[in-house]
């Protein structure tokens, strides 16, 4: 694959087989998750709440260390999103 100019942007295309193997369908809404050196394309979350955590915040939640600085930061993000502050 190569990035190429598409209008004022850059992009690439995927074969029908690749999209089918990923389970994507025509017209499906997708989310793009970006981190250094990586782009992930995933089905869009249609309902519910999505919260982005740092690695430290996610580890604090996963290990139950909610009284740590990272755990408190993660809980505060959730509280802000659901309006529970």
Write a structural description.
This protein is an alpha+beta fold and 85 residues long. The protein has 2 domains: 4-43, no CATH class; 49-84, no CATH class. Helix content is 35%, strand content 21%. It is built from 3 helices and 4 strands. Strands 1-2 form a two-stranded antiparallel ribbon. Strands 3-4 form a two-stranded antiparallel sheet. Helix 2 crosses helix 3. The chain starts with a strand and ends with a helix. The mean pLDDT is 90.
Summarize the structure.
The chain is an alpha+beta fold and 85 residues long. Helices cover 35% and strands 21% of the residues. It folds into 2 domains: 4-43, no CATH class; 49-84, no CATH class.
């Amino acid at each position: 694959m190569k990035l190429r100019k598409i209008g004022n942007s850059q992009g690439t295309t995927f074969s029908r087989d690749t999209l089918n193997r990923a389970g994507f369908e025509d017209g499906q809404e997708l989310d793009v998750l970006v981190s250094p050196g990586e782009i992930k394309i995933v089905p869009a979350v249609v309902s519910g709440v999505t919260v982005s955590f740092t690695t430290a915040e996610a580890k604090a939640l996963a290990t139950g260390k909610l009284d740590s600085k990272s755990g408190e930061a993660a809980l505060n993000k959730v509280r802000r999103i659901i309006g529970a502050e």
